[in-house]
Amino acid sequence: MDIDELLAKIDATRPVEHRVDGVWAVWPGVDVRQMAVVMLAAGTHFSTLTCVPTSDDALRVIYHWAVDGRLVNIETAAVDGQLPTIGDLVPAADWAEREAHDYFAIEFTGRAETPPLVLRDGDEPGLFSRTQNVGRDENPAQVARAANASQKGEPR
């Protein structure tokens, strides 16, 4: 399968870069639902998605697809913390979207619900944004032990 032709079906106007670590399409604002439809029709495999916070409080979201043994990475951004869901089109994306919601508070619009995957029911999403500095200057295990002891009323 010609990956350039495949990606042109999603957006023929934007560049694609072939690197040693895979094919990269850095396309802010890409229609992720169109992406999913095209990739599924071509028989590709959705691997996962990755969220990468940037220095300007934006959030890069990279969709990873396996195409004939090559990794195809399609990067976009969560606009105002939102992206359309592809979970209804790609069942494997349900897990990744729930994880991204728990860790980064991304709202995947169009989902009936987003049950927590790694958080407990009732916990606020955005774990990584709330704990971004934990462990940078301290031992994370000691911080966790101290917090647990404090909650139980035990001495540290």
Task: Walk me through what this model shows.
This protein is 29% helix and 26% strand. The protein has a single domain (3-125), classed as NADH:ubiquinone oxidoreductase Nqo5 subunit (Beta Polymerase, domain 2, 2-Layer Sandwich). The protein starts with a helix and ends with a helix. The chain contains 5 helices and 7 strands. A hairpin with a 5-residue loop joins β3 and β4 (59-67). The longest helix is centred in the C-terminal third of the chain and has 13 residues, at 140-152. The chain is of the alpha/beta class.
List keywords for this structure.
156 residues; alpha/beta; Beta Polymerase, domain 2; five-stranded mixed beta sheet; two-stranded parallel ribbon; 5 helices; 7 strands; 29% helix; 26% strand; elongated
